[in-house]
Design a protein that fits this description.
Elements lengths: L6 E3 L5 E3 L7 E7 L8 H12 L4 E7 L11 H12 L18 H9 L15 E4 L5 E5 L9 H8 L2
Parallel strand pairs: 3-4
Antiparallel strand pairs: 1-2, 3-5, 5-6
């Protein structure tokens, strides 16, 4: 099983198969608009602009599970991202990343790349997962890590 086996909802509620992203390096991140890490949208967009022509895609999944820091509708979230950070990478429908209603994709990501001390739960907004061109989960990156600090790993995977 790889991430290509999952179907997610875009911000209009339509099904999107992650198989559409085959042969690309992906950064999958749970996001929030009212979080201290929200400015990471800017760095994520910078990474996307720098590497999209080489095969990088960022996939953002808004989540309201951490102190209700993503209260908006899917439309409001997308508008916020575009207007405030110039986001042009895909922003999907709001999901849960932990608990019994957790999106299957994030259950899978958490299993494949546990956090510190083997913890599987997502600990906060802007937890990032790096996926190779074959759909394999390579690494979990902590919320506080600046997305630009992932450049070396992204370049390595793009050149593999």
């Amino acid at each position: 099983m790889t991430i290509y086996d999952f179907v997610v909802k875009n911000n209009k509620g339509e099904d999107v198969s992650l198989s559409e992203y085959k042969d690309q390096v992906l950064v999958i991140v749970n996001t929030a608009s009212k979080c201290g890490f929200t400015p990471q949208y800017k760095e994520l967009q910078n990474l996307y602009e720098q590497y999209k022509s080489k095969g990088l895609t960022i996939l953002a999944f808004p989540c309201n599970q951490f102190m209700k820091q993503e209260p908006g509708s899917n439309e409001e979230i997308l508008s916020f991202c575009e207007l405030n950070y110039g986001v042009s990478f895909p922003v999907f429908a709001k999901i849960d990343v932990n608990g019994e209603n957790a999106d299957p994709l994030f259950k899978y990501l958490s299993e494949k790349a546990p956090g510190l001390m083997g913890l599987k739960a997502i600990k906060w907004n802007f937890t990032k997962f790096i996926i190779d061109k074959n759909g394999n989960v390579v690494e979990r990156v902590a919320p506080q890590t600046n997305p630009m600090d992932m450049k070396d790993k992204i370049e390595e995977l793009l050149n593999a």
